[in-house]
Write a structure and sequence with these properties.
The chain has one domain: Nuclear Transport Factor 2, Chain: A, CATH 3.10.450.50. The chain is built from four helices and seven strands, in the order ααββαββββαβ. A seven-stranded mixed sheet has the order 2-1-6-5-4-3-7. The chain is globular. The protein starts with a helix and ends in a 12-residue tail after the last strand.
Length: about 180
């Protein structure tokens, strides 16, 4: 009888506490992913090709709507390496920032949707900014790595501004307030 009584007390507590535990797990995952995206941004800014490459899954895939291609991330990395080298050598400046409209996942997988802003200034001082809608699929082994990046259609500065920066996308209480 005591066991039934105790279970009747514990069950509602467990049901009530579950959303708080899930929110804490979600917040921890999103904080890890924010650090991942910060590392991506830092590697682009520094022109650190090896650091960027280390954030990509060895079997990763890049899908580009603009280029109408799907290719191994290793091929995309080969194409991007000269830009990293120019940035590292000071011949160019590059940066990338991320904002998200949807962030789904669990402890080992993540699907991130949003817009990235890639800014580049070449050796002649010519600058350009590209706002690009994207989706990313990430997996976590010992750390998060991008498995699939889908660069979709161009976005506008207004659409970019409508999205919150990464850390702001999960700064809510467990009840979503």
């Amino acid at each position: 009888m005591k066991a039934i009584f105790l279970n009747s007390l514990i069950a509602p507590i467990a049901v009530f506490a579950a959303p708080f535990a899930a929110a804490a797990d979600d917040a921890a995952r999103l904080a890890e992913l924010d650090r991942f995206w910060s590392a991506v941004s830092q590697s682009v800014k520094d022109g650190d090709f090896d650091a960027y490459k280390a954030l990509c899954h060895p079997g990763g895939v890049l899908v580009s709507e603009k280029l109408k291609t799907s290719q191994a991330m290793t091929k995309a990395l080969e194409r991007w390496k000269p830009g990293f080298d120019d940035t590292k050598a000071g011949r160019a400046k590059a940066s990338v920032e991320f904002r998200f409209s949807q962030r789904l996942g669990d402890g080992t997988t993540a699907h991130e949707t949003g817009i990235f802003l890639y800014s580049f200034t070449d050796a002649q001082g010519q600058s350009k900014k590209d706002y690009v809608r994207f989706e990313a699929l990430l997996v976590k082994g010992d750390r998060w790595k991008i498995l699939m990046e889908y660069q979709k259609s161009p976005a506008t500065a207004e659409e970019w501004m409508a999205l919150k920066p990464a850390a702001a996308t999960h700064a809510t209480s467990p009840r979503g307030n």
